[in-house]
Amino acid sequence: MSAVVIAALYKFTALPDAPALRDRLEQLCLAHGIKGTLLIAEEGINGTVAGSAQAIAALHDMLLADPRFEGLEYKESQHQDCPFLRLKVRLKQEIVTMGVAEVDPASRNGTYVDAATWNALLDDPDTLVIDTRNDYEVAIGQFGNAISPDTKHFRDFPEYVQRHLDPAKQPKIAMYCTGGIRCEKASHYLLKQGFSEVYHLKGGILQYLEDVAAEDNRWQGECFVFDERVSVDKDLNQGEHRLCRACRQPVSAQDRLNPHYEEGVSCPHCYAQQSEANRARARERIRQVRLAKARGEHHLGPREDHG
């Protein structure tokens, strides 16, 4: 059986015809059996999808035929099984939600740093390295000397900047995220706030792991990804983490030994916040999924999110 091709892509570009583009993309994906998520907004496109090599090539060709997608940030990987359960092609206000008006990365953003030179920024004592991902992502892996804003959502990043950063004290900032998209917005925002030197890792952690030799690789832990793989290791193989279907948090092998972990029901991160009634509903949902599987029927099961 052929491996499934997973394509992660994004581009900030003006799309005033976003509704019509959404319809065309959905039709193509349905026709080719593509699954995953594509987000379309007037500011651009963002998504991760999976399908056969031919199907993903058709989607890629359709996007590149539109001159607005020149320079599309695009990355392919392979997996034995499709990491998505369904297709979602959605219109959004933002392709990555910051919630701040007049943030336009297509017009201006920070200086790209490729994976080969990123280590020099990590070693620069005058550079503040910031992980723009959310707390649950940072918890399973990061660059060793990076600062985490401890945000629950990316829309909390501007408040972190206002509370903790000062252009006069931290003029040189380098940022990274999973695939690069959050740093596009974060760098634009920092420049608007008066920060003079703003750098971000082009292609994000995933590009770094792909490009940097093992002996030079400074990544520690695993990298959270927004599909059924949950995490990847330094070699971009599926990691040890699994997803708690109750709270959407990654759970480690150690977490899964905890008495509060029950697959599909709860984990050490969320057990205390759940009622017994919620856990009972989750157990019934899992029972229905297993019954459907035993009968050879398809059951969508829990939803997946795209970050």
Automatic annotation (TrEMBL):
Its EC number is 1.14.-.-. The keyword Oxidoreductase applies. Pfam families: Rhodanese (PF00581), UPF0176_N (PF17773). It comes from the Bacteria. PROSITE patterns: RHODANESE_3. One of its GO terms (biological process) is tRNA modification. SMART domains: RHOD. Keywords: Oxidoreductase, Transferase, tRNA processing. It catalyses: uridine(34) in tRNA + AH2 + O2 = 5-hydroxyuridine(34) in tRNA + A + H2O. GO terms for molecular function: oxidoreductase activity, acting on paired donors, with incorporation or reduction of molecular oxygen; transferase activity. InterPro entries: Rhodanese-like_dom, Rhodanese-like_dom_sf, TrhO, TRHO_N. Residues 123-217 form the Rhodanese domain. Belongs to the TrhO family. Catalyzes oxygen-dependent 5-hydroxyuridine (ho5U) modification at position 34 in tRNAs. This is tRNA uridine(34) hydroxylase.
